[in-house]
Structures are given as structure tokens and as C-alpha cells.
User: What shape does this take?
Amino acid sequence: MKIPVIVCTLITITFAGLNQAEELKKEGVRISVARLLTEAQKYDGSTVCIQGELVGDIFRTRGGFWVNLLDKNQCIGLWIPDRLHPSISRLGRYQVRGDIVRVQGIFYRHCQKHHGGTDIHVVSWQTIFPGYEDREEVTGEEFLRVALFGIIGLCTVFLLNIISRRPSGSSHNGENQRAGSGLL
Amino acid sequence: MTSHEKKFSPLSDDIAESLAGNFSGNLLSSSSSNLRPLFVRNLLFHLSVFTMIPNFSREDIKIIGYYLGLIITALGFVLCFPLLVALFAQEWAALPDFLFAILICLIFGFALQTIFPVAEDINWRQGMCVVALTWVIAMFISAIPLYLSGHFLSYLDACFESMSAYATTGLVLIQDLDHLSLSHNFWRHLMCFVGGQGIILVGLIFLFRSSGALRMYIGEGRDARILPNIKSTARFIWLVSFTYLVLGSLLLAGILMMTGVSFPRAIFHGVCIFMAGWDTAGFAPQSLNILYYHNILFEVITVIFCFLGAVSFGVHYSVWTGHFRELRENYELRVLMASVMIVYLFTLVGFSKSISQFTGVGDFFRSTFYQLISGHTGVGFSNIPTSELAGWTELSLLGIIFAMGLGGCTNSTSGGIKALRVGLFIKSLRKEVKRFVYPEGASIEEHFHHQRDVLVDDQQVRTSMGLTISYTLLYLSGALVGTFLGYGFLPSLFESISASANVGLSVGITSPFMPNILKIWYIFQMWCGRLEFIAILILFRFFVTLGKK
Assistant: This one.
């Protein structure tokens, strides 16, 4: 009785393991863009899984389009075939946070299809968090401070001008008077 | 005029004028029979220059203060452009940053003009001093809106970025560039344009009526008057730059629009990339630099503008006036082309063992040639990730290092030793060889064509060698500082040359987290490299005088 149980357990574990490995292979290696670029040789041609914010613009090309993904301080280009039809709600820009996406794709250190550029050809796509507007509140206080600074500064210059224009000595020529009457 | 000035002024002007003449290859002081090693002579030359410059009088300080005030006021007007962009793009949060900087310029500028009111023309020594000081003050003021944007870890980082833009270097310390406002981003690129043309050149158009303008123009590392009148020269440079700006920006924007980018975004990117390319700065509006666009045609166009930016304005003038022969005959251009080919051979040999990593000839050429041209012309655009460049073989990196160190043409927007000086060195070597081969007493002459036929003389050669050695010492100083701080020698040398020759390529050392001392040193190197030393030596003398007083 024991032997069939052990055999069944072993078979189940093996299948589960294989299934997991298959799943991992399908999902690709989860990796940061910084590490991917630093160890580009190691991951060249393999399926990877990266996550980050979509930033900038969309560039259309034949059969697909380009978009750039920002992961912390590192960016990488994603080439997305038209057939994937990903929905992009927002791209990261000034006061806009782009969609946070998780993509799986094949990493190419020198992509043959795209004249040797470093890129990822996206295979699957998942939006983790949609983008949103991140507007900075502008208060009148800031403008007021600048205006106050300007008024005080320009008034000081005006006063300096009045002081420096005071007649000094017996200069007859206007130019000479201007030249010689500095504060120094 | 004070008695002090009566005593020193004619002499000081002579010296400063002579020093300025160095840039046009007109003068060198030591005799040809001097047998001391060249670097010793160069060191002695700089020491003697420093001690030859007499103390500054009170009148000098007043004139320097007045002209400095004028230029700072002009900078305030330049700052109105990003302010307009902020208004147009409705970036209300960015408005106070620029208003604050404009007010500082106006207050500081008017205050200096009020405190030091003069009606006298500026002399060589004062002009040089104004130029060197202007660049430092412009750096500090221009960094204010950048720092207020909140994208820099410290004010020092903002100053680094600002000097990098003005000196058209292109090394960046900005954080999260992809979320920077359009107005701040535009300001980064406008600084490249203004710095590339020359901050003083902005003033030449708007402010100065005096002949003193020439003295400041030369202080910015410009070596020749293209037209007899300095103001006409300045106008011509601006005419060329604006014409190319319009054409280049439209061309780049057109390419982007073909890929579906909206018109305003395409124009913005086109203008920014053009300003950074033409002025050999290498900034880009996005963190991926040129790789962001994923467009081979876009890269080809940028290479063309890199070249145009690295060509002397004198050659531009010849072509504009229909003298196309200049393109074929100009010696400096020929040296530049030869240099590109030789240095590229270096890179090719460096990749001989690891060429298999590339998928084809086109791929290899695109990755390597683009960096080489970018380095040689001093632009600093990159179409590969920084980590990729850092992983190049040592010999390939050396190829790029040589390219960066040599630089583009004189009287262009690029930095480095410059092709004409390399060419002069080659000509002088030929002359020396001929001296041995030809019968004793034979007249040995070497000519070259650089807008006109020029006879090589020993003075020109020594001047070129002096500057070449000065650059080499500057390159090595940064490498030593980097090595001392724990970085490898080759990466340190690469980064140091990139800063000094105003290139902007990086193998990863330049980052917001590098030591502050290295940031300050790189700022100094960018400043020295852009102004070509003499104006800075005179400024040091000015500070010594102030210290004594």
C-alpha cells in the first residue's frame, strides 16, 4: 500500500514541479531594468518579465509601435506588435504618472530586427495600475514671495541709483561725472 | 585714469592682447632655439603668464563690474524664453522658478551697473576677466530654476548641470528627467544653445557697441573674425545658427510626426535635440537620450547636425557665400576626417575579438560609429545604454577617448584640442623632417589652406602645442582625481576627457551619487575646457588682486 502512495506522491510532485517550471519559462525571469542592462550579455535573447511606468510618447512603426518603460532610474524601449492591442491610458510626463505595467518579452541586446538597438519585444502585457494626473498645487503664496523679493530688490537698485547720481566734486562733463561717481 | 593705470595699462593690454592672439595662432613668446622639454616650457609659459599679468586697479574692477552687470541683465532676458514656454504649456508651478531667476538677474545686473557706472571701453585684460566671471555667475543663476524644479538632489548638482549645458558638455545629474516640465527641459537645452554660441555673443547682438566686444568674444575661445567687423561676425554666427535651428527642428519634428507624435511634442523634441546637437552639447529631453526615439533616420540626421556643429563658422561662411571649394581644401576639415577614420580603426581593432556579439555589420556600425562621431564632434549623444558603453573593450574605449580628446574644429561649438592644432603639429613634424633631408640653408616652408593660404611658422606651432599640453594636463588631472577617489583609471580618464573636452559621453561615473569633490572638479574642467585657459588665468590674477586689496 505504501509503495503506490509514495509513487503517486512523487508523480504529483514531479508534475507540479514541471508545471511550475513551464509556468516560469512562460512568465520569464522577473528582473529590474537596471540589472537587465548591466547583465545584458547574460539575458540576451531570453524571455524576461519587467515592471515599470510607461513614459514619453508612442512611436508607430510598421507592424507595431514603440513605447519606453521606466523602472526606477532606468529606461528601456518596448516594441509592441499591433496584434497585442494593449490599452494605454496615460504616459508618464510632467505632472502625469503613466500606467504601471508588467510586461513579458524577449530581451535583445542588439536587436537584429531594429538595426541593433537594445530593446524588448513584448509577448504579453498586464496593466498593474492605471496612470493618473499628479498636478502640483500652485499657491498664490509662492508668487507673492517672488513679487515681494522683486519689489524689495528693484527698490534697492533704484535707491543705489539715486545715491550714485548725487553730484560729486567739480566734474563738468556729463560722461565724466557718470564715470567717476560710482560707489566704489 | 589713475597713476596706477598709467603705469600698467599699456603693458597689461599688450600682454593680454598677446595672450588672446594665442587663439588665432599669431603669437608665442619663446624662441625656437629653446631646448627645454615642451611640457616644462608650457608650465613655465603659464606661470610666466600668471606673473606677467599686473594687478588690477580700482578702475579695472569698476569696468569689469559694469560689463558683468550688462551681461547678467541680458541673461535675465534670455530667461524669459522658458518663462514663455511655461505660460504656453500652462505649467503654472514652473512660473515662480523662472520669475525668481529673472528678478535675480535684473537686480544683480542693474545693481552692478549702478555701483560701477563707467563710460570707458573695455580692454583685453578686463574683457577676459568679464568672460571668465560671466560663465561662473551665469552657472549659479541659471541653476536656480533647475534646482527649484525639484529634480536635483542638491544645488551643486543643479550648478553642475548648468555648467554642463553652457559649456556644451552634456553630462547630466538630473533625477527623473522623464517627468521634468517642458519649460525646465527647454531651459536646459536653451542654455546649450546660448553657451555653444557664446554667452558674450548674446551680449554682442543686444548690448555692446564698443570695440571692447572683440576682447570678450576672443575670451570665449573663438579664434577668428569671420567678417572684418566683430558685430557682423556675431550676426553671421547667429544667422547661421537660427537658419539651421529652423530647418533642423522642422526636419527632426517631421520625422517624429511620421511616427505619430503630436505636432507640439514633435516640435518641442525637434527644437531641443537640434539645439543640443548643433551646439555639440548632447542633452536630450528624455533619459534614454537618442535611444528614446528608436528611429534610425532620426539618428542619421543628428549625426549630420553633429558634424555641422563641429565645423568652423569660417567654413560655414565660405559655403554660404558660394565658395564650396573650401569644403574640399580646408586643411582642418581634412584633418578632422582623417582623424575620424584613424580613430575608428582603433575602435574596430578593439572589437575584433568580440564582434560576434553584434548581429550584423549594420548593427555594429550603428552602435560604434555613432558613439565615435558623437565623441569626436563633442556632442555626446548616445544611442546605446551607458552600461553597454562601459562594457566596451579597453582598446575601443581608448579609441573613443582619443576621439573625444581631439575634438572638432576651431571656432566651432565643439571642444577638445581641435583638429587645426593637430594639423599644425603634423605640419611642423613634416617641416622638421624636411630640415634634415634637404640641403643645409634651403628655405623650408609648409603651407595649409584654412579659409586662406597660411604659412606654418614656429610661433603658431608653439601656441598650438602649448594649448595641446594644457588640455592634456587638464585631462590627466581629472583622471587622477577620479582614480584617487577609487574609480578605475581608464573610466576616470574617459569621464575626465568627456568633461574637459565638453563631450558628455559617460561610462557611469557621473551620477548624483559621485563625490562632491569630483563634481566640483568636473565643473572646473568644463569651464577651463570651454574657455581655453587664458581667460581663467587672468581671472585668477583678478582674485589675487582682490585678496591683496
